[in-house]
Amino acid sequence: MSFEEDIRAAADAVRSCEEITIISHIDADGISSESILAQALLRQGIQITTKFVRQLDPLTLDQIPDDSSLKIFSDLGSGQQQMLIEKGLDPSRTIIIDHHVSQPAETGSDPFIEVNCLNHGHEKMSAAGVSYLLARELDTINTDLAKLAIIGNVGDMMDREHLCLIGPAREILRDGITCKAVELWEHDLNIYGISTRPLPQSLAYSDDMEIPGVSRDPDGAGKFLERIGIIPLQPNRWPVWEDLSFEQKQQVCSAVIEQMMAHGKDTTRLFADHYLFPDEDKHQASLRNASEFATMLNSCGRWQRPELGGAICRGDRVAAYREAEHMLRNHRTKIREVMLFITDTGVTELSHMLYIHVGGRFPDTIVGIGAGMALSRLNPEKPILIMCEDSLDPSMTKVSMRTRPDVVSRGVDLQQALSQACEGHENCTGGGHRIAAGAFIPRDHERAFIEDVNRILAQQYAQ
Ligand code: C5P
User: Fold this and answer.
1) Is residue 384 in contact with ligand 1, taking CB distance under 6 Å?
2) Torsional sign, CA 299, 362, 416, 76
3) Which residue is closest in CA terms to ligand 1's atom 4?
């Protein structure tokens, strides 16, 4: 079946339902995906119950109600179909909306109703994108949910390799622009925090470009800006990128290009698309663009409050927003702590990857994000593998891996590396994407697992 036919089949399956249980992932993509599905289904008059989970394993599956409601798994499920069968889920009453690598259940059972963009070659779209296409198939009134799909896509870094959304995710962007919920800033400066971060910080901590005298040096970045006439609004209060005029932005871009070229730096990743939300109030600046909105959702979901992120997605800008602001502050502080811990402690450098174990110091839901941020301060040529205690099961270890787009383009695939390493060990589950992947492994397999991953990466580099 084609992707469109899969979407239509899922839409047909939900239309006749009265009650649906959505089981979704706790990250920005899972939260925005759930929000799209729940709002679209409610508009159809369907009753919704949601369960957010950290991952699908036998423990979390036990929390799913054993009732007659149709089950929708979003942002997870494709890789766990055998487990779903073993848990007794009825394939004809279960829809999987996903973008992770699909592993159909062993023969002998009917296939699940699965809508997975990856099965159709669309690598740069997330579960929120797939959910949106289903919502739009149910009713074109749901095009107002395109904004949430863009947040999910960006939250899952679907724009990072090409520095813009492509394929079906770009079509969704067009829907968002048409209904005036989204503004596209094309080929803009490739920095994070355009609505909330003081500009020197944004420039200093852009992972994608090496600007001599600016990168990793906010004071140097401030001086660099002052030299071209961009100054603080008040002492120590710098403008954010969004505040600059067109001419000021041009000035900054020209100066950055000049500085990089003078030092022979690669400027190919200097520009990226930004997705702005003009309907969001400037006083709630964390929601003014897709990547920062996604960070806010992550700060709720990864700290056990996914429903708070869900309320933000549904438009709560009062009580939920106030609480989410606290979550965001805490999230930023903790991720910075993870990053500093990694850079201060130092990593073990193996032939084809960097590795560190952070024990029980940080929750397993955020170590991957911290490792990704630490990478540009370490040796970004090699992927980083971080291990920590599994917060739910002390006999298990959580593994997260991160790398950079240029390493992926050289043939490295972290999803494949972790999945293949898991095959060699009992009770291991792993998956994800080429650029970011994770696994849960028994604690006493750590050493052997690391060696296996390093060996698999060596094979990937050699191909
Ligand atoms: O947990 P972490 O942030 O490191 O996960 C990175 C990616 O790997 C996510 O897309 C997550 O869904 C995926 N993952 C997975 N299976 C696991 C752990 C993580 O597919 N056991």
Assistant:
1) no
2) negative
3) 400
